[in-house]
Amino acid sequence: MSTEPRQLHLNAFLMTPGHHDAAWRHPDSQPHRATDVTYFQQLAQTAERGKLDSIFFADGLAVWGRLRSNVSGGLEPLTLLAAIAAVTSRVGLIATASTTFNEPFHLARKFASLDHISNGRAGWNIVTSGSVTEANNFNLEEHLDHAVRYQRATEFLEVATGLWDSWADDAVLLDKESGVYADPDRVREIQHAGPFFQVRGPLNVQRSPQGWPLLVQAGSSEDGREFAARHAEAVFTAQQTLEDAVAFAKDVRARAAAHGRDGLPLILPGICPIIGATEAEARALEDELTELQVIDYGLAQLSNMLNVDLSGYPLDQPPPEHLLPTEQEVNGNKSRFTLVSDLARREGLTIRQIIARLGGGRGHRVVAGAPEQIADAIESWFRAGAADGFNIMPPILPTGLDAFVDHVVPELQRRGLFRTEYTGTTLRDHYGLPRPDARSTESESLLASSSL
Amino acid sequence: MSTEPRQLHLNAFLMTPGHHDAAWRHPDSQPHRATDVTYFQQLAQTAERGKLDSIFFADGLAVWGRLRSNVSGGLEPLTLLAAIAAVTSRVGLIATASTTFNEPFHLARKFASLDHISNGRAGWNIVTSGSVTEANNFNLEEHLDHAVRYQRATEFLEVATGLWDSWADDAVLLDKESGVYADPDRVREIQHAGPFFQVRGPLNVQRSPQGWPLLVQAGSSEDGREFAARHAEAVFTAQQTLEDAVAFAKDVRARAAAHGRDGLPLILPGICPIIGATEAEARALEDELTELQVIDYGLAQLSNMLNVDLSGYPLDQPPPEHLLPTEQEVNGNKSRFTLVSDLARREGLTIRQIIARLGGGRGHRVVAGAPEQIADAIESWFRAGAADGFNIMPPILPTGLDAFVDHVVPELQRRGLFRTEYTGTTLRDHYGLPRPDARSTESESLLASSSL
Ligand SMILES: Cc1cc2nc3c(=O)[nH]c(=O)nc-3n(C[C@H](O)[C@H](O)[C@H](O)COP(=O)(O)O)c2cc1C
Ligand SMILES: Cc1cc2nc3c(=O)[nH]c(=O)nc-3n(C[C@H](O)[C@H](O)[C@H](O)COP(=O)(O)O)c2cc1C
């Protein structure tokens, strides 16, 4: 056959000082650079050197985790990505932002601005926010119910896409002679009035290079999958086993097909690659990191994921079965709860062992090995239909990303699975996704109101 | 005397395609670059070449003015300034953001991020937003009352400053050996509960180089002055006459002194310098721009400022006195209403003449002349106590800023009124303002909650 094999998509999930929860104690990591823009700019340049589709920042609206024993207090992703856009030219730039604690006008505007600033490289990881500490920073004592959060997310996206389409691509006429800058008939109010939002529009940003940012989603509960199937163009997901990953991918694709969205969304499971020159070297690094874990931190993280306070229980026994809630009872991150409790049950792990297993990727797949073995781990899931690409979560930064770009990417390229050069310029180009058309516009009339 | 004379502060107010409302029709302007990040990066580099204290972007949360006849749909300032920070190293970066339509947690976080990204160059122009079209994009049919907006602004600032102080400067210990990243006793919850906001804190950004961004304010009504006197470190203001400007500066300084804030805030009136090699050349440019004005646009702007629909009234007569409301009746921009109605009355101007007079600076002072004359206009107000510096509003960009930096700045330097080199690195350094101390911290306990 002469046709090129299906191509992988690779996204670098960046987080100071790397994804292993003990990374900050390892000599290779740079936890002192949590607020240093050049640290992130250099990581993005490394990703671009590796021809990766994109980089990605997670986000939360409160101090996450116990700041006593892990890095926190870094930079807001959209602001940071604008500074990264200025020193890169191809790599996609995906920011997480919450639909629960934002207003659609602000967020639509920021993503449109980032898309202009980056010449079409913006992506949005749409999350609904899982923690009550976030709610406490936004005038709420209790968290919104999980189902309500997804209802709000749906309406939020309707408003945001309406705003992105509110300027037709050809709205700006710029006729100096006749004195017509823009055609008011090609810039429309959206007049949205729904249960969560009333937004008149239009957006105050001209239509951006990609029309809409790439829409990514990262919740895997029932509601999360349904949202992904209807709206997402790519999905980040944490999967422990090939079997679960294939089942997840099939389920999301079937749901999407039922909504007439064949071939969408792209499925991108996380993988934390612990890379050594040899397998033995990789395993030694993994062990070294496990040794450095702060057990209290791991216990707090695990308690949070399982929605139960495990402190005081024997570390060398499994978490007592009767303590664990059902997924239904969890109002935070439902899918992560289920992943972790399944993992613990399936393998009969003790609390200490679960903490070690979650250290590398908080529930994402961890693979330790030589570059070829990492490439095998990627290729096997890719060929088995579990993934259209991967969310690469280096255990330590910058070394883990350097190793991936310098040793794993060339191996994937040799296998014909990954691009050796960018073929397009926008993030949508990289993921092979079309630019949305602006929907038909209606006329509007606007009042003057500028007195600066 | 051997002591250096008091030094001027200069801020470049940047706006596509320049401040004259007909600039976009002039051949020197670049209205096609409204969403082009390199346009703004180059302007910022020009300001930095001129050793200006800062650049500044205004902002609104709706399409401003009539898009048919003026540039609109540009970029969101905070995102844009992060991209500018990446290609500059000294010039301050001031973004406007509204306290009426934002949440303090988001905004405190973005300014702290920008301050880190720029190594201490962030400033915030605090505005309360004057138009109902903005309210319509944020779930409101009516605008909040002027007084309520300022009450909200006061509480907003209390929350934001609390968040900026929530991490002590020495909170991060980074002790890899013992496994302690940050000292939880030096990162405090703010537990704010007030009529507008309930915010638990702490901020999820470490304390930034300046502690707080420079706080700028730009409303000149009674409530606006009081807010400036209590909280602002610098004030932007539109003033037509030296007499009014001196009275304004005295009033704001006296109010500030009554709150124990002697010497604050710095007063920065706007000036639109129309620069020519000779006065005749400058006047020719001014006339050329007046010729290019779109009368319908000017009429809509004027109607908006005067809070009355003037369409249909004879252009060559003054606006009918009985139509004009009182400042009390105005709920939008009170001070601009008063400035414009006073100007019209004082000089008995016709509607057409007012539109011409407002074309250059929307009510700010316009001065046409050779570089020495512009320097005279600056020096005279500076020496008379009307100003600590100026908000420079070039009529056309980039040419108007080039002319200012290449011809007016050297003249001011020759007169010993303006720096020839930056002496500090932060925006606060440039304005001679201290870095705020973090207020005393209390202990906090945080829940773990990260499952990305
Ligand atoms: C790779 C990945 C990244 C995520 N990033 C974030 C994030 O940055 N912020 C966040 O609030 N949630 C994040 N999540 C969590 C989910 O998006 C979602 O908010 C949460 O899982 C609840 O959804 P669910 O109950 O449908 O699973 C992430 C999940 C995954 C798999
Ligand atoms: C130089 C200058 C810049 C301003 N920039 C903005 C702006 O960007 N956005 C805004 O909503 N208002 C802006 N304003 C208006 C005021 O900040 C304020 O919101 C408005 O004047 C109402 O306040 P007042 O009634 O106290 O005058 C500006 C005013 C001046 C003098």
Automatic annotation (TrEMBL), chains A, B:
Pfam families: Bac_luciferase
UniProt feature, compositional bias: Low complexity: 443-452
Annotated keywords: Flavoprotein, FMN, Monooxygenase, Oxidoreductase
Stretch list, region Disordered: 429-452
Protein family: Belongs to the NtaA/SnaA/DszA monooxygenase family.
All copies of domain Luciferase-like, residue ranges: 27-386
Record-given protein name: LLM class flavin-dependent oxidoreductase
Species of origin: Catenulispora yoronensis
InterPro entries with a match to the protein in the record: Diverse_substr_monoxygenases, Luciferase-like_dom, Luciferase-like_sf, NTA_MOA
Lineage: Bacteria, Bacillati, Actinomycetota, Actinomycetes, Catenulisporales
Entry-linked Gene3D superfamilies: Luciferase-like domain (3.20.20.30)
Stored NCBIfam families: FMN_nitrolo
Compositionally skewed regions (Basic and acidic residues) per UniProt: 429-442
